[in-house]
Amino acid sequence: MFEKCIYFNSNALVRQINRIWDEAFKPLGLSPAHAYVLRVVLEQPGISMKQIAEVLELAPSTVSRFVDSLINKKLLSRKLDGEDRRGTRIFPTAAAEKTHQQLEDTGKQLYTNMNKIIGKKAFTELVDNMRSIRQRL
């Protein structure tokens, strides 16, 4: 019935991927979305909210909610931007630094598992095609 429907098939795939990613990040006490925000900040300490939104292709309001949640978990801190009094910069805390390697290892393990399940060539082509299609849309 929905064999040729991009909407149905992409959403069904996303639900399956979400279950796998949720389970992978659960031991860290993080959702995948929070983990990705944290990874971005760990890679670029002092990044602005706008930059986080651009990297993750999320709405600024969504990023703000995620950052607030990670601040409440004592994993991020917000500091006034010395150059722009209206802006803030986001920094990882010492607790976040302790989780950095675990976050990276979880990402690597997910990559390895997907290569095993889907096949390395098919997985690479899938991700490349998704990125290309996303940019065209």
Task: Reconstruct the topology from this structure.
Blueprint: H1 6-25, H2 32-43, E1 47-48, H3 49-56, H4 60-72, E2 76-80, E3 88-92, H5 94-118, H6 120-136
Antiparallel strand pairs: 1-3, 2-3
Helix pairs in contact: 2-4, 2-5, 3-4, 5-6
- Structural class label: mainly alpha
* The first-level CATH class name: Mainly Alpha
Write down the CATH topology: Arc Repressor Mutant, subunit A
Contiguous uncertain segments of 5+ residues: none
The number of helical runs is 6
Mean pLDDT: 94
CATH superfamily: Winged helix-like DNA-binding domain superfamily/Winged helix DNA-binding domain
Q: Judging from the principal axes of the Cα atoms, what is the shape? A: globular
Rounded Rg: 17 Å
Number of domains: 1
Q: Compute the separation of the termini in Å.
A: 25 Å
Largest sheet features:
3 strands, antiparallel
Strand fraction = 5-15%
Mind telling me which CATH architecture this is? Answer: Orthogonal Bundle
What share of residues is helical? 55-70%
Instruction: Note the run of SSEs as H and E.
Output: HHEHHEEHH
Q: Largest beta sheet: what is the strand line-up? A: 1-3-2
* β-strand number: 3
